[in-house]
Design a protein that fits this description.
Layout (H helix, E strand, L loop, with lengths): L16 H9 L12 H18 L6 E5 L5 H8 L3 E6 L2 H13 L5 E5 L10 E7 L8 H10 L1 E12 L3 H14 L16 H10 L2 E12 L4 E5 L5 E8 L2
Parallel strand pairs: 1-2, 1-4, 2-3, 4-5
Antiparallel strand pairs: 5-8, 6-7, 6-8
Helix pairs in contact: 2-3, 5-7
The structure holds S-adenosyl-L-homocysteine.
C-alpha cells in the first residue's frame, strides 16, 4: 500500500512528479498571453508554421501532441485542419485545454491525461513534442515511445533548449531571474539537451534528421524568427525510416 494520492503519476516511471505539480499550479495561466506562458504564446505561430512547412501541411492528418500543456499548439494545429490528440500528465492542464477547445467550438482536438507509454493508439502521421523533453527523467525513452507510435515515413517534430553558457544566461538567468518572464525553477540547467544528444537518441530510434532551426526570441520587443543558430531554443524535424 502507498499513501500517495492516486494521481496516476506512479503508473509511469518516466514522469517527474515535482515537475507535474509545478505545471499543475500554474495551469490557470495557460491561455493568458501576458502570463507565465507568454513566451510560448509569442512563439506559437512561428512554430506552428514551421510544422506546417516541414510536414507538408497538417490538414486532414492524425497528429499526436505529447506534453501538450494547455493546448496552445494542439489547437493551432486543429485550426489548420489536423485531427489532434493532446496528452499531458498535468490533470489541470488537460482540464484547461479541454475547456478552451470546447469554448472555441473545436471538435477536431481531444485531450487525455496519460503518459505516452500508456497510449494504445499508434500510426500517427505527425507527432509533436515541444518544450517537454527537458522536464522528464529519461527523454530518450520518450523519443523511443514516440517513434513506436509513428507510421512509417511519419514526422516527428521536437523542440527544447540547448545546454551551454549562452542558453544558461538567456533561458535561465535572463528569463527566470532578470526579466521574470517565466517562474523561477522552470528549467534545470542539467536537464537541458544539446542538439547532438537529441539527434543521437533519435537516430537510435530509427528516425532520420531532416532539419534543425533555432528560435530567436526577443522578449522585450516580442519578436521571434527562425535562425540557423541552435544555441538556445531550437526545433528539429525527423521522419521514421520506412
Ligand atoms: N508542449 C506545450 C507545453 C510545454 S510545457 C507547448 O510547447 O506549448 C511542458 C509540459 O510537459 C507541461 O504541460 C507538463 O505538464 C508536461 N509534462 C512534463 N512531463 C511529462 C510527461 N512525462 N508526460 C507528459 N507530459 C509531461
Amino acid at each position: 500500500m502507498t499513501d500517495k494520492p492516486d494521481t496516476g503519476l506512479q503508473t509511469s516511471a518516466n514522469v517527474d512528479a515535482d515537475e507535474i505539480s509545478r505545471f499543475d499550479r500554474v495551469a490557470d495561466h495557460w491561455w493568458d498571453p501576458e502570463g507565465d506562458f507568454r513566451p510560448l504564446h509569442d512563439i506559437n505561430p512561428l512554430r506552428a508554421d514551421y510544422i506546417e512547412q516541414r510536414t507538408g501541411g497538417v490538414a486532414g492528418r492524425r497528429v499526436l501532441d505529447v506534453g501538450c500543456g494547455g493546448g496552445l499548439l494542439a489547437e493551432a494545429m486543429a485550426v489548420r485542419g489536423a485531427d489532434v490528440l493532446g496528452i499531458d500528465m498535468s490533470a489541470v492542464a488537460i482540464q484547461v485545454a479541454q475547456g478552451h477547445a470546447q469554448q472555441a467550438g473545436l471538435d477536431s482536438v481531444r485531450y487525455r491525461q496519460l503518459p505516452v507509454e500508456e497510449l494504445e493508439e499508434d500510426q500517427f502521421e505527425v507527432i509533436t513534442c515541444l518544450e517537454m523533453l527537458e522536464h522528464v527523467p529519461d527523454p530518450e525513452a520518450i523519443i523511443q515511445q514516440c517513434a513506436q507510435r509513428l507510421q512509417p515515413g511519419g514526422h516527428l517534430i521536437l523542440s527544447t533548449i540547448n545546454r551551454n553558457l549562452l542558453s544558461y544566461t538567456t533561458a535561465i538567468l535572463g528569463a527566470e531571474y532578470l526579466l521574470r518572464l517565466i517562474p523561477r525553477g522552470t528549467h534545470d540547467y542539467g536537464k537541458l539537451i544539446r542538439p547532438s544528444e537529441l539527434a543521437d537518441w533519435c537516430r537510435k530510434a530509427g528516425l532520420a534528421l531532416h532539419d534543425q532551426r533555432g528560435i530567436a526570441y526577443n522578449p522585450l520587443l516580442r519578436t521571434q524568427r527562425l535562425t540557423d543558430s541552435v544555441s538556445v531554443n531550437y526545433l528539429m524535424h525527423f521522419t521514421l525510416e520506412a
